[in-house]
Amino acid sequence: MKIQSQPMGDYQTNCYIVTIDGKDLIIDPGMNATSWVKSHVTNPVAILNTHGHFDHVWSNNELKRDLNIPIYIPEDDAFMLEKDPFSKGTPSSQADFKVDTEDSIDISGIKVKFRHFAGHTPGNSIIEIKDVWFCGDFLFLQSIGRYDFPYSSAKNMRDSLIKAKNIKEDFTLYPGHGMPTTLKQEQSIMNWWIQEVEKSI
Predict the structure, then answer these.
(1) Which of 23, 74, 91, 130 could form a disulfide with 123 if both were Cys (CB 3.0 to 4.6 A apart)?
(2) Which domain holds residue 173?
(3) E strand or H helix that includes residue 78
């Protein structure tokens, strides 16, 4: 598995290209991602969104049109692609596949699992491919996603952190912003974050 990444836009949102067996998956194509993506893929097969925030989906429609590939997004965040709930002028796009909670799917022979960790958004999910998590805005290096936005939930974030803390396997984490980390590393400070989030409930 080959992973390419590039931070995009004012929020430096990581866009990822994951290549397996000569097929490219595009994860979270944010602001002005189209040119970089098109110059770094050879056989694109899908666009995957971890959640619906504008800085992760901005280039969805342009890439879908130019590359003729489908968009996958967690079902509970699909409305954000069309409604622009933060009034940022996000180009509207439409999901071809609204992924249900905890779905494992096959995309051109590549096994992809969406693991639901609500809180940052209602449908917020990590995208699991082999032993890697593309975790959007759920977990970062020594930090977690915000839970004070419209459609966010401190209670759901707390519950998601508890769920993540209890996972036995280790994964390499590629977050939506910043540098990679590992699940075990973040689990070591997760109790502190759980206590912090509980103060907002």
Answers:
(1) 74
(2) 2-198
(3) helix 78-83
CA distance 11 to 15: 12
- State how many domains the chain has: 1
Q: What is the pLDDT of residues 156-199, one digit of tens each?
A: 999 999 999 999 999 999 999 999 999 999 999 999 999 999 99
Nearest one of 155, 152, 151, 120 to 136, comparing CA atoms? 120
Over residues 112-166, the pLDDT tens digits come to 999 999 999 999 999 999 999 999 999 999 999 999 999 999 999 999 999 999 9
Strand partners, 173: 133, 181
Neighbours of 59 (CB within 10 A): 28
The answer to whether the CB of 145 falls within 8 A of the CB of 197 is: no
pTM flag (> 0.90): yes
Q: What is the CATH number of the domain that holds 30?
A: 3.60.15.10
The tally of CA atoms less than 13 A away on the side-chain side of residue 118 is 16
